[in-house]
Amino acid sequence: MDIFLRTAIPFPCTHTFPKTSTTISKSIKAPAAVCCLGKNEGNGLSSGSFQTELEGHENSKSSEEMLQSVESVPEKKHNDIWQLFSEAQQNIMFLYKQRTAAMEELEKMKMENKFLFDRVEQLQMKKPSSGKDTVYIKSELLLRIDSMVLTGMIDTGEASDLRTSILGSKVSVADDFSDIHHKRDAELLAELRHVSDESKKKCFHVVHICTEMEPVISVGSLASYVTGISRALQRKGHLVEVVLPKYSSLILDEVQGLREINAEFYSYFNGQQHQNRIWTCVVHGIGITFVQPISHSSFFSRERVYGYTDDFERFSYFSRASLDYIVRTGKQPDVIHIHNWQTAVVGPLFWDVFSKQGLGGTRILLTCHCFDSQCLAQPDKLALCGLEPSRLLRPDRLQDNTKTHLVNILKGGIVYSNKVILLSSIHSKGLIICSLSHGLEPTLAIHKDKVLVAPCGFDNPFWNPSMDHFLPQRYSSDDMKGKAVCKVALQKRTGLSENASLVLVGCMFSEVSDVDVENLRALVWIASRKGAQFIFMGTSKISSISRIVESLQEELKDDNVRFINEYEEALSHLIFAGSDIILCQSFDDPVLQVPLKAIRYGAAPVATNLIDTQFRQIIDHDFESTNFSRYISKAFGSLSLSQAIDEIKKNPSQWNMKIMDAMSKDFSWDAECCDIHISAYTSISNL
Asked: Fewer CB within 10 A of the terminal residue: the chain, N end or C end?
């Protein structure tokens, strides 16, 4: 039987079946009557005795019955063996199913582990640098030095020397001060005094006085700009610090390590000295100082950042307090960088009050994102922060060009700054001064030699398809295979037909998007007839944007159109990577930087409304426009959605070359934008 089983089941099985073997041993046992055999003289068998024995049992079976019983034994063995074989097969199938389930579970665990690993890496990119990061440690050390000055441990002169040593240190800081959090000020000061000056180099020390910064507090484009340009400058060896108001109810959870300095300083406001409390933290390797008024605590304990009747009082107090803090700590930055009208009053305050308080080598640079918000105020309000209204209510100073009885705070920032940078990705210097200055044209015309235009950028390490952990397969301009994988993944994720030959169009909405619903509906209708697929995603919870998306979803009922009415970080990356075209409300997008990200991910940025002729003519003939504006105008500026779809279908090889060329361009904060800022800092440092 063992031989039979080994033949029937040609592979080893270590599983035992005790119940089956017991049944077999009983079923194949021979009947007792067959075992009664005797001996005789001839052949050793006694047939007579055997016959007598059979006849002597009245109740025994007949010979025919016994023969049938003997013949039935092989048949029973056969049936039992097949029963064993059947049970063995069932057990083997059960084990096979168990093994398959275990393999599926193992594969699922591997996928989950990979997802978690990638997510951890992605989150680490957003978190502050580790304790071993040189930039992070430098920022921490500078904040600790400020604390030492405020508590009287060192004077401003020694603080300046220590800062110089830290700024010049290239290597030893990360090794010598990696455990900075575990050292008391006295111990840290002793080590700081031994920092070597051997690796000193020339770099700029920049202090931003501003009202927004990602991820601390973000309202508009200012927040991403301050963080983006600061990180880009630090990657190139410069030191950047940021001074912000402490918005008690608006600081986000991303701010970690926020701590209060056990010291206070006074600031002048409304004819009196007022106490301020200082808080510090490091975000993205940038040292941040928060100024918290004590007597005017309500200034920054509100539901919104802007939009109050006392905004001038709030931000002029903060501007004055920030300058008082810089002087009190003995900082001597190369540049104090101010932003928009909210901190533009720093300009006249610096030159009229603070420049002779140890800041003789410091210069002022103003960045302006737009001119539609300027802050007009009664002249006597200037006295609140220590300025003389009679000296400033003049046409060449703060007097408004139209409403001459008022002072214009943004105008004051332009007049009193050494350089002015206008943030615009597509508009030239000439167009901004002539057409977009909102009444400041005479002032800008006078000071046009110190005006520069810089484009917005984006965070290159976070928005990079060759490093993006949100993508199912990464890719670059040198190897585009991953983009096709991302396209199929996006179609599958959104329930669209998984067809790589269909043109996929993505579109992002934001709270500041100026959406022309009628025009957008017409574009989708025309393009869908050409076989295009659409994915629309909102980027905020603003109710107006939600209504627009819901309206489009109701009116554009099409199997090739998908609407996602909430922002999801991973999906937004996949939309850029999987789309062939990205619809843009404008090429000048300082909030989302959609056109810049589209180019980086190999998707053509196409405007929902074609750029007007005036813009294209200015770009073509004005060399004071940015590299990005000249490129976008030439490559995609006059391309409609319908034309883009036709080009993709009719000339795929030529289109792919165009896309790969676009991907090779660098429009991040680290590129043109950073270079313009460094050039501006260099220029004013030589004044």
From this structure: C
